[in-house]
Design goal:
Length: 273
């Protein structure tokens, strides 16, 4: 198989990264994609930088064993805590989801007040603030950790009164801060986008880094001259899925997220990598 025809590896702490995977399917239909969800160790948001970096290294070693040509870290926490270190160690192109989301927010805001929701690790890392202040020092970023959103999504409680109640509590302070833009700084959060929008109201523009990340990945492939220009062969399965725990549960949620059903996912012992 030529370099162009190799797959792109995509990984997340759980199922949230499928929002990025879904956008990549739309934006680059000729590309083969491999997804790994670290469902045994989700969530990453409450873990240390050292632990998240260790997990990310293991996953990248696994993806490289599948001969991928590029890697997308479809996890805000891993992008915030591990990307800088891992990028120096990896000999294939690798991107995260933070920068595309920050760039999009900088373009959408009208009053310079940007809300940010994410895991505890993403919020405390300050990575979004740093990037946005580099773009414009006048931006005011109001962050809020929403640690319960990830387990609610992982349990499939996407359209549920409990999720609406929790969202109302989390987002009240951001609404009072007069934000006009809100970065969904975790790839799980677009799965409850309708709930978040209902709580913050129509005047607040939501930023979904998944879409921007897919576009950036496409640009990266063009820049490196490794885009696949051949049609996927009839009968070929261009998308493969791997998890570290409970493949059947992952399959159920994946079939709610992706545009067509998947046949299954393979469980692997990620700690062996």
């Amino acid at each position: 198989m030529s370099e162009r025809e190799k797959a792109i590896g995509v990984f997340d702490s759980g199922v949230g990264g499928l929002t990025v995977f879904r956008e990549m399917m739309k934006q680059m239909p000729k590309e083969r994609l491999i997804f790994f969800g670290d469902t045994a160790r989700v969530p990453y948001g409450s873990k240390s930088k050292e632990t998240v970096t260790q997990y990310s290294r293991q996953i990248i070693r696994f993806l490289k064993s599948q001969s991928v040509k590029a890697i997308v870290i479809a996890c805000n926490t891993a992008s915030a805590l591990a990307l800088d270190d891992i990028e120096k160690e990896t000999d294939i192109p690798i991107i995260g989801v933070v920068k595309p989301g920050a760039v999009s927010a900088s373009k959408k805001t009208r009053n310079g007040k940007i809300g940010l929701i994410g895991t505890e690790a993403t919020i405390s890392s300050g990575v979004y603030e740093r990037l946005l202040h580099e773009m414009d020092g006048r931006f005011r970023i109001i962050g809020k950790a929403c640690p319960l959103f990830v387990p609610l999504v992982e349990e499939g409680l996407i359209d549920d009164p409990v999720t609406t109640e929790i969202a109302g509590r989390y987002l009240a302070d951001l609404i009072d801060s007069d934000i006009d833009t809100l970065i969904m700084g975790c790839t799980h959060y677009p799965l409850i986008k309708d709930t978040i929008k209902k709580v913050v109201g129509e005047k607040v523009e939501l930023v979904n880094p998944a879409y921007e990340t897919a576009l950036e990945c496409l640009e990266m492939l063009k820049e490196k001259d490794i885009t696949n220009d051949r049609e996927i062969e009839l009968g070929e399965t261009p998308y493969r899925f791997f998890v570290s725990d409970e493949a059947e549960k992952f399959k159920t949620i994946a079939n709610m997220i992706l545009p067509y059903g998947i046949l299954g996912a393979k469980k692997i012992a990620i700690e062996e990598y």
